[in-house]
Amino acid sequence: MISIARIMAQTPVGMKQLCAATVLALAMPFAAAGQDNSLNEANDPLTPKMAFQMHDYVQPVMSGRPDDGAHQLYLRHLVPHDTLGFDQISRMSLPLISNTWGPQGSSNGIGDLTVYDMAVAYLGKTKLGAGPLFVAPTASAPALGSGKWQGGAQTVVSAWHDWGLSALLSSYQQAFDGSLQTLTLQPLLFLDLAGGYYLRSTGISTFNLGLNSVVPVGLGLGRVFERPDGRVLNIFVEPQYSVVQTGAGVPSFQVFAGVVLQFPIHREARR
Q1: What's the CATH code of the domain at 56?
Q2: Among residues 9, 75, 191, 219, which one has the fewest Cβ atoms lying within 10 Å of its Cβ?
């Protein structure tokens, strides 16, 4: 555990360090989560635990632009709460390191800040979440963001199974001036394996209405480590290929890797 902590304590500079931590953790033979609900809990987007997530997308191949590429390292913070007397989950997401490159030059900086808050309802083994979404144009360069204030809605439905977890995330956001409309759909499939390992497919389909669209399909491997006090380390890597690509500049191929730390919130969830 010391070696992983040392890696994660380094200043994140992109895919190289994140992949190194991922490969090392996938191979380490310690403290793996057992074959119970711990894997589903670690991967469920509606799990009521505080989480810090580093999600890295490297996009070396872009549709219609063979010399272009992009990279985004997201820092995401998720907080469950019960404001107004019902269960909610809030998440803040910021591309902390964002890069684009091509024949016309490169841009480096931060991207747009996205915040949402969802109310959560429980229906047996199925959970539903829905709430408002807000995007602030915090990008440090025009190529790294939309340059638009946006609002919309985020929804999540997740279900636990004996074999793993399935979920569907969807969002719609629109620029306040009406010039940009974006719909995203993200089906999540997790197949539990032995020793804390799992297979995953989590490609995000994005439809910039009237401009372009992309539908990636991925297959990756992850591993969950759980401490007795409820803290969880979840590390994964997932290559994704876009089976639908319309419009120039969408990723034809990308690699998605991540490190997620979860911490229990000491309160009773309402069910």
Answers
A1: 2.40.160.40
A2: 9
